[in-house]
Recover the amino acids of this structure.
């Protein structure tokens, strides 16, 4: 056994109704004038939080959009500076957290994040930003939120076509953490429990889309998945999803959801210990097979063909995926990736 483990600092408040603690948690961070961030669709929720924090409101800014474009950040930053804000309160999914992180990157202001999806960004020191249509990703401790309030009562409003794929997105962080180049025993424990939790949560959520029990398990799993993503490097799955998402403009969570059984299957022979943990977490004889069954329940689009990909697109994606060499337990070859994409194109059991 040989590993390096670096824990990232963060304070987590978890539980149904825990958003009631938002004002005291802002005080704990010393935030006196917060910018409250959300997407335009979640502006009512942002206003609800404004009502909860009294005179700590500096500005309500429901301007977050997908992919964290730098011009959106610049406008938010200007408004924030004009309002004299001294901290961020982000209420929403990965896109809203992304805007908060982009502001923190430029100002080093403290952040309190209240996630409403399972993306997991709130646990990572990673930020992706888009400029002139190009997305670049970097790591900086400035962007890691200081405090996170996980309140499952806020995720119950997700429609199932968002919560299912969002849950599988978190599962994908955990799966790749198990066979990461820098895997370690603590993160692997968390990864296994993330997969176990979603193995229960996803069928429950899809059967009862707004039920608090399923969403409580889901949000717990999302927290663990976020830690995995922030702590250890990812492999073939994240590379192929970024290629498919970036080049073919496919939805972030939908692509993760569809591809994770195929990415795991790609590594089936090369990462037997990870496969055994996935199988144990899902209570199935075969890890990738168990992920495929879960994807069938969670996914709204169940093949690359149904996502609008073409065989030409598969060729291009395979070319791109092998361009920059990166770690993966099984060597990444063009032929191997093309076969994996073909199986996902057909929606075949891997
Ligand atoms: P999102 O934040 O774009 O949200 C999707 C939609 O769902 C939005 O319209 C939003 O308003 C709505 N929504 C969110 N929560 C809801 C709720 N509870 N009820 C009803 N509607 C709700 O989607 P996402 O999948 O959470 O985030 C994706 C983005 O996050 C991507 O840009 C991705 O790159 C980024 N991300 C970053 C990291 C990181 O570590 N930096 C990690 C994961 C994801």
């Amino acid at each position: 056994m040989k590993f390096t483990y670096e824990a990232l600092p963060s304070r987590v408040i978890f539980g149904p109704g825990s958003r009631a603690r938002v004002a005291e948690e802002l005080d704990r961070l010393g935030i006196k004038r917060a910018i409250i961030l959300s997407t335009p669709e979640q502006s009512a929720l942002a206003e609800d939080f404004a009502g909860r924090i009294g005179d700590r409101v500096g500005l309500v800014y429901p301007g977050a959009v997908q992919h964290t474009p730098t011009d959106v950040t610049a406008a938010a930053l200007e408004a924030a500076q004009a309002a004299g804000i001294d901290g961020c309160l982000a209420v929403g999914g990965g896109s809203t957290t992304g805007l908060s992180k982009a502001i923190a990157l430029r100002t080093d202001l403290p952040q309190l994040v209240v996630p409403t999806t399972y993306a997991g960004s709130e646990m990572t020191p990673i930020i992706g930003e888009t400029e002139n249509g190009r997305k670049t990703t970097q790591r900086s401790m400035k962007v890691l939120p200081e405090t996170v309030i996980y309140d499952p009562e806020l995720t119950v409003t997700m429609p199932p076509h968002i919560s299912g794929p969002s849950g599988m997105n978190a599962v994908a962080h955990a799966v790749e953490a198990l066979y990461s180049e820098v895997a370690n025993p603590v993160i692997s424990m968390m990864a296994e429990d993330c997969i176990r939790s979603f193995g229960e949560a996803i069928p429950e959520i899809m059967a009862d889309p707004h039920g608090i029990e399923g969403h409580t398990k889901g949000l717990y799993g999302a927290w663990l998945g976020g830690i995995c993503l922030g702590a250890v490097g990812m492999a073939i799955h994240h590379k192929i999803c970024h290629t498919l998402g970036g080049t073919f403009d496919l939805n972030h969570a939908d692509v993760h959801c569809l591809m994770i059984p195929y990415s795991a299957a790609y590594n089936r022979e090369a990462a037997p210990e990870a496969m055994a943990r996935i199988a144990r977490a899902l209570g199935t004889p075969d890890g990738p097979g168990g992920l495929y069954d879960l994807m069938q329940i969670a996914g709204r689009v169940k093949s690359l063909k149904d996502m609008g990909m073409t065989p030409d697109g598969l060729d291009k994606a395979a070319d791109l995926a092998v361009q920059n060499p990166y770690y993966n337990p099984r060597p990444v070859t063009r032929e191997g990736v093309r076969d994996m994409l073909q199986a996902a194109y057909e929606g075949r059991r891997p």
